[in-house]
Amino acid sequence: MSTLPATTAANRIARQQDTPGGRQFLTFTLGGEMFAIPLEHIREIIEFGGLTEIPMMPDFLRGVINLRGAVVPVIDLAARFGRAPTTIARRTCIVILEVLQEEQLMPLGVIVDAVSEVLAVEHSQIEPRPSFGAKIRAEFIEGMINHHDKFVVALDIQHVLSVDEMASLIGMGGSEMAFANQGA
């Protein structure tokens, strides 16, 4: 089982897409809500397909894909947030991200309903995360982006896709209830 070549944290910092006055985010929809991921975490976006399911895994781990000969785990973000698994539709895609794990960047795919646009966001447009009222765990939120008088939830990918936390959840025998009890 091969994996994509790991990238060092130093290489990732060199690739960051920050602008002088702000940052860039990829926006996408999930269950009718708009979310954003900092662009520096994104490696590529691919069409949904070629997913191999793995028996006895929690709902949030939908399976693995073969990406140019490398095995990449695919996480269903909706299920990770304690919601029903994503229904696959025409615009469903997989966003390939790089998550820092033990000083190395590990590739992970996330299923989203549809990718929207890339936003250049000024630091003043990013509000602190709310302490209550969000439909996902507070530590999953980096902040709220004020975009056209609406708020877009900017995700903290290191927390959402914490490899250690997901591994411990998988180690619980794939119990979806264990995860659901940690929900919003």
UniProtKB/TrEMBL annotation:
One Gene Ontology cellular component annotation held by this UniProt entry: cytosol
Q: Which InterPro entries match?
A: CheW, CheW-like_dom_sf, CheW-lke_dom
Signal peptide range: none
Q: Which residues does the UniProt record annotate as the domain CheW-like?
A: 22-166
Q: Domain of life here?
A: Bacteria
Q: Name one Pfam family in it.
A: CheW
Q: What is the name of the protein in this document?
A: Purine-binding chemotaxis protein CheW
Q: Which residues form a coiled coil?
A: none
GO biological-process terms attached to the record: chemotaxis; signal transduction
What organism does the UniProt record list as the source? Niveibacterium umoris
